[in-house]
């Protein structure tokens, strides 16, 4: 414990190490929080649930904070209705008796539009209660300057979704302009480069029902161009989920891989040095072979032919890294201390080989293991990202690498969706730097020769 | 490290001199031995690859599929079999396939066959691809791979040379002015090397291709390729800038950090002070007394960095659409073209082996402590 405290106080002299430790502590705390707040199974359902879960999110929407930049004012998603569920004054529902058989159920959506850009999409979700005769809903759009535009007439059978962008007649009525633009465009603005008209819009859905107990409910979603703190991807998923859940996954993968490889390498080096002779020579030769083994191609083959589960990859990665170049450095140090007199003492009282290796030889050198171990963590985190970008990521888990991979496959950089690449990349970079900074400082603490340099 | 003080011991040097008459033969002998050792190492690596790839029976499937296709083609084009009914023909094909498989030894146990695969892989007889072909139209995996190899070699040898030269000179400069602001800045940047080159590649594409439009997003040459050789070369250079910068940025700071540290350690040795006291110029001291003993360590770390470069190529080339070996591997992996995957892995093993072999020789030549022909080989 005192050694631990001494190390900490030595580390505190390096500002970069303090920053790194802060990053690591924040990551660990946040990972614990997120695993508790959104359990594993729930995260997978949310991430793999498909469009049903995220129906009301816009596609590839930028994060909300882009509106903080000067001159950027992109619309947020507006969800209105159904009437009655929220005591929102913007949705009004009234019944007007037209004749004995017919009643008009009119839902009016009123909302203010203040953004400088057009919404991404407009959808109206209609549901009805009826027995035989299907209600007929006619939709009318009222712009702030008083123009009235007929949208469509729909018969409602079960749940019906009216996507305004797919209403061809409406598009024709708007002179070939896409509805989500045409409905909001300022008629005074240039037709080539339209700007939205700001003000209060109204959509009325007048549903003609033919039965006494029948009813029509409507919900309007005006999809914006920004969403949440992280934006969404091509499947409308909230990237925040993947960015948050990516952290425990990255930490677990990096830590386990680093522990697995450095400890196993260390043990193999210790065994080789202790037994010497043939064992040592064999380990040395295996290391030389292992050095030229194409690790990444082999991992890719395993991913293709067997399983791409993140844990299988982890096991394969550790197995391939046992005889890594780290053996040479550990071996050099072991050789030095092997001559210490207390080993002779241990042998004199009859300690077995493995007792000496595991209780006397290895514990003595654990401090030299620590810096390399900490520096190795980010490189394994990046291995996971690399595999994901090669389409070999875990099929279930949301990870940072998967987000990067999705972004790459969907040409995020070509289409200007920079947030999609920058967010996971920034997280990878910050976490990588955190560990690397601590590791570099530890290296100087444990290797006094470097301390003055 | 103190035995690096050889230059100061004229006695030791003169004692060794008479032996150096047979230097050439010793170099040849040493090279030969290392080459054999490296071939054995490559063989083991390739053999492991074959075992991994064949665990799901994939290598067998490549060969069986190829046999069936050949037999079916030869039967289909042969007029003698035209009058057979389709069932007779199928039976005939099955018989011929069984014969062929027996001839190629596919009915033997895997252990025996694995050695024949190994032999095929070692002489680069890598089989045939089902769904890929080289730009010249060949289906032979060897041709497909060899066609892509120059692009990879061009990109990575360029980046490697730039990294090596810049690294050495900057490290020397920093070790001369250590503690300066630039020194502390570069050492502070060393942890950035935790991220691989493709990762920085993404940033550079974003910055220089998407936002500024200075360089192309990726690829080898502009489309359509320029006609004159000079324009073609310029176009290739233009496309190379971003990937080379990405590789450079991802490894240079750590490289400088490591080399600078070694230069500093060696420049604190007593014999360096002695050389300075003798009045030798800084340049001579640096070249003879600091760089010479540092070189072996630097070569070792270089070997490791080149190996990392080869592995990084798969994804870096994919990110930059660079038509090299790495991108080929990625494409093959996406359409399960097993023969190309195994073939590329074999080529990677060869590339790694050759790299290590070459550096081993360099190591032996520059390390004053390793006597060429002696039994302590390189450390790589």
Count of all domains of chain B: 2
Envelope shape of chain B: elongated
Number of strands of chain A: 9
What structural category arises from helix and sheet content of chain A?
alpha+beta
Terminal-residue CA separation of chain B: 18 Å
Number of helices of chain A: 16
Membrane topology (chain B): Multi-pass membrane protein
Subcellular location (chain B): Cell membrane
InterPro entries (chain B): MetI-like, MetI-like_sf
Family (chain B): Belongs to the binding-protein-dependent transport system permease family.
Describe this structure in words.
The complex is a heterodimer of chains A (453) and B (380). With 453 residues, chain A is an alpha+beta fold. Chain A folds into two domains: 299 residues, MetI-like (MetI-like fold); 150 residues, Jelly Rolls. Helices cover 52% and strands 15% of the residues of chain A. Chain A has 16 helices and nine strands. In chain A, the strands form two sheets. A five-stranded antiparallel β-sheet of chain A has the order 2-3-8-5-6, with no helix packed on it. In chain A, strands 1-9-4-7 form a four-stranded antiparallel β-sheet, with no helix packed on it. The longest helix of chain A has 40 residues. The model of chain A has no long low-confidence stretch (mean pLDDT 83). Chain B is mainly α. Chain B folds into two domains: 99 residues, no CATH class; 220 residues, MetI-like fold, CATH 1.10.3720.10. Helix content of chain B is 72%, strand content 0%. Chain B has 13 helices and no strands. In chain B, helix 8 packs across helix 9, helix 9 packs across helix 11 and helix 10 packs across helix 11. The N terminus and C terminus of chain B are likely disordered.
